[in-house]
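Dear H.,

Thanks for agreeing to be a second pair of eyes. The structure we're designing against is below in token form, covering all 177 positions.
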């Protein structure tokens, strides 16, 4: 028999998982010990399943083992001969998941049948004659609240007017005599 595994997605990333595997994903909102259902992208048992209709039948469950922080990543920006140096760093918030269940269901979960509820409702209506219900009174329409006058905004300051450019003067040429 071939190894059973699935490719699941969580937080925009895809992971290959098998039953009993442990994986680190981006932080999930669930508390420790809670069960999480992961969306399958591909499943392999005896054959490979990758179409959307069949993937709805794939069940991948995991439990939240712990919340932790990843290693510190240091970032250093530097430009030579410019005196520019910047140092920063961060630690990723992570969640460790333990895969507990990985299987292909034989069929989709059945939706609750509406047909079974109809005969019971019909039997109840046959036993008691129907009475017309009195019309419910509508509450009086509420008047809209009076609008408050808007606060005046201070007038924006206009930039000082520029003086027109000085016209060049024309000099009369005079004879030296």
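And this is the sequence the design step returned. I haven't edited it by hand at all.
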């Amino acid at each position: 028999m071939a190894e059973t595994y699935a490719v699941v997605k969580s937080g925009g990333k895809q992971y290959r998982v098998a039953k009993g595997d442990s994986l680190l994903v981006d932080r999930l909102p669930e508390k420790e010990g809670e069960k999480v259902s992961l969306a399958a992208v591909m499943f392999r048992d005896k054959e490979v399943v990758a179409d959307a209709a069949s993937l709805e039948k794939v069940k991948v469950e995991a439990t939240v083992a712990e919340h932790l922080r990843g290693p510190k990543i240091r970032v250093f920006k530097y430009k030579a001969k410019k005196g520019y140096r910047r140092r920063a760093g961060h630690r990723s918030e992570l969640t460790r998941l333990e895969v507990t269940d990985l299987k292909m269901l034989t069929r989709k979960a059945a939706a609750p049948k509406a047909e079974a509820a109809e005969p019971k409702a019909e039997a109840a209506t046959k036993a008691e004659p129907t009475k017309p219900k009195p019309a419910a009174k509508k509450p009086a329409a509420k008047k809209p609240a009076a609008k408050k006058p808007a606060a005046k905004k201070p007038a924006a300051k206009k930039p000082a007017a520029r003086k027109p450019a000085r016209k060049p003067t024309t000099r009369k040429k005079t004879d030296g005599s």
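Two observations from my side: The mean pLDDT is 82. The longest helix spans residues 117-127.

Warmly,
E.
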